[in-house]
Amino acid sequence: MSNRTPIMAGNWKMNLNHLEAIAHVQKLAFALTDKDYEAVEVAVLPPFTDLRSVQTLVDGDKLKIKYGAQDLSAHESGAYTGEISGAMLAKLKCAFVVIGHSERRQYHGEDDALVNAKVKAAYQHGLTPILCVGEGLDVRRAGNQVAHTLAQVDGALKDIPADQVRSIVIAYEPVWAIGTGEVATPADAQEVCGAIRGRLVELYGQEVADEVRIQYGGSVKSGNIAAIMAQPDVDGALVGGASLDAEEFVKIVRFADQAVG
Ligand SMILES: O=C(CO)COP(=O)(O)O
Hints:
It is a single chain. The protein is of the alpha/beta class. The protein has a single domain (7-253), classed as TIM Barrel (Alpha-Beta Barrel), CATH 3.20.20. It contains 13 helices and eight strands. The protein has helices spanning 18-31, 34-39, 51-60, 86-91, 102-107, 112-124, 137-141, 145-156, 162-165, 186-204, 206-211, 225-229, 246-253; strands spanning 7-11, 41-45, 66-69, 96-99, 128-133, 169-172, 213-217, 236-239. Strand 7, helix 12 (225-229) and strand 8 form a beta-alpha-beta unit. The protein is globular and about 45 Å long. Bound molecules: 1,3-dihydroxyacetonephosphate. 1,3-dihydroxyacetonephosphate is lined by residues 11, 101, 173, 178-179, 217-220, 238-242. Belongs to the triosephosphate isomerase family.
């Protein structure tokens, strides 16, 4: 049994404006209890434009929910129109930043070198990366999911020292399972999450690898979370669509399809 604290994070993607964000976080705050926060680290990952509102709410009401951004710039500051720096996110007291989500790799051409630069930028500003990796359908059909995902891990972690890596969160998100309703089987999730931990052992040793939290992401819902969380190398979930429903997300935080209240 590991002593890693599970981490459930809601990636809102490009959903919820800042007013909706406030209402949503209030619902989560109302439903989640101290007991929940003792058992699980809970985070929301809203769009950039919501972060100030979420910060004000969390600070003002001393909420235990954490928050972070969905991306950051690899650059420090300057003439990079449209980019948001790690320093800006740190100033808003973000705990986390998602890096290398498959939607950014696919639609914005982010490669392993850029992902690696973003991981470095995150650590420079005390932000914990939620590093996303995972294979597409073609790779899965060819049976190359482990090799493909480990190559992404190697690329993202190049030159990142062990004392930083121990705090990272790695999200295994098979692209074919994202937003499709086609969740990976618990065994599929364990196969790749276990291989990721194995690679961390090779790169950084057992002690560091044992501290790293590895999430599964892709069509997670309250009805399938318990079986996924029962896998030894799965320490949480990165939840997309289901995190936009406060009641459903609270059920996921509690690992089960049970009544909220
Ligand atoms: O991409 C995801 C989280 O980052 C998963 O999205 P869904 O939960 O909507 O499949």
